[in-house]
Amino acid sequence: GCWIPLQRGKKTREILRQKGLLEDFLKEHHYDIGTKYARSFASQGVYEPLMNYFDTEYYGTIYIGTPPQGFNVVFDTGSSNLWVPSVTCQSLACQNHRMFNASKSSTYQSAGYNISIQYGMGSMAGVVGSDIVLLSTFIDTNQQLALATSEPGLTFAYTDFDGILGLAYPDIAVEGLIPVFDNLMIKNLVKQHLFSVYLDAKSQVFGSMLIFGGIDESYFTGPIHWIPVSYQGYWQISMDSIIVNGKVITCESGCQAIVDTGTSLLAGPASEVNNLQKVIGATPIQYGEVRINCNDIPSLPDIIFVINGIQFPLPPSAYTEQVGQGDCNSSFQATASYLWILGDVFIREYYSIFDRENNRVGLAKSV
Ligand SMILES: *[C@@H]1O[C@H](CO)[C@@H](O)[C@H](O)[C@H]1NC(C)=O
Ligand SMILES: *[C@@H]1O[C@H](CO)[C@@H](O)[C@H](O)[C@H]1NC(C)=O
Ligand SMILES: *[C@@H]1O[C@H](CO)[C@@H](O)[C@H](O)[C@H]1NC(C)=O
User: Fold this and answer.
1) CB of 49 within 8 A of CB of 73?
2) Which CATH superfamily is domain 12-198 in?
3) Ligand 3 mean position to 277 CA, how many Å?
4) Where in the sequence numbering do the catalytic residues fall?
5) Mean pLDDT lowest among 16-30, 102-116, 311-325
6) Fold identical between 12-198 and 219-366?
7) 337-348: per-residue pLDDT in tens?
8) Ligand 1 pocket, residue 98 CB under 6 Å
9) What is the mean pLDDT of the chain?
10) What percent of the chain has pLDDT over 70?
11) What is the reported pLDDT for 187?
12) Domain 219-366 falls in which CATH fold?
């Protein structure tokens, strides 16, 4: 295939040399994935293994440029831009991570303008460009991306990941940059216009998986429940109510939720989350932390999210985590937003399918 964009004025020999480098690299990369994750090639989809960092970050490796420079990125269904740190960035968060040197990539093209992206926590500012991105076995050419020249504060300073790869709708892509999954669809690289996510049970470093273009039934049991996307920005859906012990506790007349792999906890509007914390006997301590006595956990109720008429229970083992001797943390977090955020805490329980073809989210009980 002709996947190196032809560059005016480049000698053929140079182009072939670059192509050779990339091909060698790909063989090696493919081989690695093929042996470690043999099951990967059993079904239709293209598999991207995710690392689980203490249940708080799930990330995978991608490569950008020619020759390829490697980065760990969060595959974030709560945003739509791709960015990694730039070598020109002096921020601690950049210096602590792998940084992309654009001058070392013969296929990088600057777009000549700047960008800044705000997240729920943290922000970045940088420059816009495009390059080849290798993810799993995809060769994603002319991918628009941002290189961070500033990552203020400590939010990204000590993360295990270097950057973020957004998987939400183009509508929320800052500067209207074409998101990675859209580019894959435009170039007909995915068999089906959907991807799915399995986040492994607590504290398993390996085993989590993102599958582009496919659904793997070995990751769930029972039926897939399909829920229409209510607004095509985030992966946003309508929730009917939240039930505990047979009673509607909150979200009485319906509410909006997003399914977000980039948020580790389960977040919701402050007053509603505070209600929920009371029901499960969680006591606020300082700095927004909410404690539960670990001994109480076996007697705590399931929290049931009712979505599209279907009940999705979350058992106490899922919504609590041990943080010290006898001390457990509630995994519910209050935010200033009106949206509920069904983060990793929820996705660990429910294999999630993000269907762009039919604009719906599929949820099925994880194995
Ligand atoms: C980036 O790459 C160029 C070209 O190889 C090199 O001259 C420069 O020193 C590199 N910059 C950094 C900060 O490593
Ligand atoms: C882009 O940001 C850099 C700092 O990172 C600044 O020097 C430059 O002037 C900005 N360019 C534009 C077009 O705003
Ligand atoms: C406990 O939960 C809160 C949110 O409720 C979170 O901010 C904090 O980091 C958690 N603490 C630990 C040690 O995980």
Assistant:
1) no
2) Acid Proteases (2.40.70.10)
3) 13
4) 76, 260
5) 16-30
6) yes
7) 999 999 999 999
8) no
9) 87
10) 87
11) 95
12) Cathepsin D, subunit A; domain 1 (2.40.70)
- Find the 333 Cα to ligand 3 centroid distance in Å: 8
The answer to whether the CB of 113 is under 6 A from ligand 2 is: yes
In this predicted structure, the answer to whether residue 25 has a pLDDT above a threshold of 90 is no
Name the DSSP letter for residue 301. P
> Helix count (H) and strand count (E) of the chain?
6, 27
Q: Which residues pair with 337 in a beta bridge?
A: none
pLDDT of residue 361: 98
What pLDDT is attached to residue 303? 97
**Pairing mode of beta strands 235-239, 231-232:** antiparallel
CB 144 within 8 A of CB 126: no
Q: Where are the domains of the chain?
A: 12-198, 219-366
What is the distance between the alpha carbons of residues 328 and 296, in angstroms, rounded to a whole number? 10
Encode pLDDT of 326-336 as tens digits.
Answer: 789 899 999 98
- 320-325 long-range contacts (CB < 8 A, ≥24 apart) are 320/292, 320/294, 321/55, 321/202, 322/294, 323/291
**What is the spatial distance between Cα 355 and Cα 151, in angstroms, rounded to a whole number?**
32
Token pair, residue 22, equals 């990339």
